[in-house]
Amino acid sequence: MALLEKLGIDLPIIQAPMAGVSTAAMAAAVSNAGALGSIGVGATDAQGARRMIAAFRERSQRSLNVNLFCHRPAHADSAVEAAWLETLRPHFERFGAKPPLGLKEIYRSFVADDAMLAMLLEEKPRVVSFHFGLPSADRIRALLDAGITLIASATSAAEGRAIANAGVHAVVAQGYEGGGHRGVFDPDAEDDCLGTMALTRILVRELDIPVIATGGIMDGAGIAAALRLGASAAQLGTAFISTDESDADAGYRETLASDAANHTIMTRAISGRQARCLRNSFTVLGANIPPRQVPAYPIAYDAGKALNAAAKAQREAGYGAQWAGQAAPLARRGLSAAALVAALAQELGKS
């Protein structure tokens, strides 16, 4: 396939770039197995991203996907932030802790990060991907001129068209079933909540660039279904959370292996943007809170991480960002990332 050649991979499988879960070791194992390994660098700076790329290259000479967050920089609102900390105060106190005195924007968007752009132009990873929107045209042109293959996530036909018109090489069709943050360009706009099957087929019909299906795909049968819809590849995230190389902590892994996997829920409370999470104490907390009461992303995440740290210190794992898709019950345990890719390839071959 043309996309596989462009990406430099043998299998139509992409490991999702899950910031906080994916690691250089995971990405290298996946790439060495013939698929596309990914790292998410939206939660680090240029130096941290460079170290991750170097760690990958110590383990693999194959293709790497470096994923960037392209959200609009947060609009701080001290009144909303103060009220949010008061809302969370009883939960902090439950663990013998106090909420932070204030909140900050903990992640810098790629749209305003010149150091990250400069690093990418120096390191030249095979693939760079965008989530939460697109950077400016000049940033896209600089990456293209460096010979980097570009991918971006879309949750609608309109976003898909914007991606194609920007000159990006391929689009990830992110279905509503998917785990983690919705890639919507505007988090305050109405979300049509298109599923993976519908969105993939719509984008295949409407666009003249390759489509990568993601959301609720956990095995070879799911990959085969996406390919039959016209996708050029499938991206899997939740399937890799329990692999040996994952950075998911013990509480996250245990929750994924529990009945909570059958009850994922969209929540804004943890980070400030809608994201699909395993049902836990934090999702219950945020279930009835209006979006306007939650600070902007990623300012809200500053509070969420502090509360999770306080809870973990008391051996309570229910306040973590335990992202997972609706097909989480299909997650396998006890496999390395390479073994999972091998199993997926075998299942795909039998489909």
Please provide a written account of the structure.
The chain is α/β, with parallel strands linked by helices and 351 residues long. The protein folds into two domains: 2-73 and 108-246 and 332-350, Aldolase class I (TIM Barrel); 74-107 and 265-323, no CATH class. 39% of the residues lie in helices and 13% in strands. The protein contains 13 helices and eleven strands. It has helices spanning 2-7, 24-32, 46-59, 78-94, 114-123, 137-145, 157-165, 196-206, 220-228, 250-256, 281-286, 299-313, 337-350, and strands spanning 13-15, 37-40, 64-69, 127-131, 149-154, 170-174, 180-181, 211-214, 233-236, 265-267, 275-277. The strands form two sheets. An eight-stranded parallel sheet has the order 1-9-8-6-5-4-3-2. α3 (46-59) links the parallel β2 (37-40) and β3. α3 runs parallel beside α5. The longest helix has 17 residues, at 78-94. The chain is globular and about 55 Å long. It starts with a helix and ends with a helix. The mean pLDDT is 97.
Based on the structure, what is the oligomeric state of the protein chains? single chain
On the 0-100 scale, what is the average pLDDT?
A: 97
Q: What's the β-strand tally?
A: 11
Helix content: 25-40%
Unreliable runs: none
Q: How is the largest sheet built, in terms of strand order?
A: 1-9-8-6-5-4-3-2
Second CATH tier, the architecture of the largest domain: Alpha-Beta Barrel
Q: Number of helix segments?
A: 13
In one word, what is the shape?
globular
The third-level CATH topology of the largest domain is TIM Barrel
Provide the succession of SSEs: HEHEHEHHEHEHEEHEHEHEEHHH
Class based on secondary structure composition and strand pairing: alpha/beta
